[in-house]
Amino acid sequence: MIDNNHTTAVTDPTVMQRPATTKGRDTRRRLLAAATSLFAERGYAGVRISDIAESAGLSAGAFYRYFKDRRELMLVLMEELTAEAFDFVRVPWDEKDPMDSVLRSTQLYFKFYEDHRALFGVLVELGQTDPDVGKIWASSRRAFYARIAQSLRRGIDSGKLRVDIDVEVAAELMGGMSEFYAFQRFALADGVVKNVPIEEGARTLAEIWTAGVIRRV
């Protein structure tokens, strides 16, 4: 979850073009915001197009000027979620203090996940059954793991990190630990994991990460 270039997201070829006018873009954004709120309340399966339109203060006919169906709207939300998450948690790699880089990026990731818990829940839920959502989710995870792997390589090159680790596997394990903890804590929210402050959870995870990869002299 540290600085790297973002990979190209998976895009559904059926998704309509964005509106050309300011009014059209605002209306489209109202529909997306309404859907986000309703998905948080009822889950994806419990929301109809008429519900989204009504919540946005629009007619069902207006909905179809911007999205062909509920699934297309959902795919747009999933694309935007993963792209925004990748950019939001971007933290420059500090060769002198790897712990600080990991800590700050983990804090940002947890904060973003908490703020968007409903959509992450939809992403995990539909990623199992909808092939396009699965591709979006897989692309997002690959991008995060690649970013972590690149940071690990920089740490190895600077002499701060161990040279005897498999960088790709370590990145997947480190990223997976953060992702699953965030899912349990913020999306699942069933009380299995402790409700500690984000800063404490991020620091503990960062300490576990760095303890495993820091080079001992």
Class from helix and strand fractions: mainly alpha
What's the tally of helices?
Answer: 9
Distance between the ends: 26 Å
Shape: elongated
User: Biggest β-sheet: count, sense, barrel?
Assistant: none
Order of helices and strands: HHHHHHHHH
Query: How large, in whole angstroms, is the Cα Rg?
Result: 19 Å
Percent range for helical residues?
55-70%
Low-confidence sequence ranges: 1-15
Mean pLDDT: 87
Number of strands: 0
% residues in beta strands:
under 5%
Characterise this structure.
- There is one protein chain.
- With 217 residues, the protein is mainly α.
- It has helices spanning 22-42, 49-55, 60-64, 70-88, 98-115, 117-127, 131-157, 167-188, 198-213.
- The protein contains nine helices and no strands.
- Helix 1 packs across helix 2 (49-55), helix 5 packs parallel to helix 8 and helix 6 packs across helix 7.
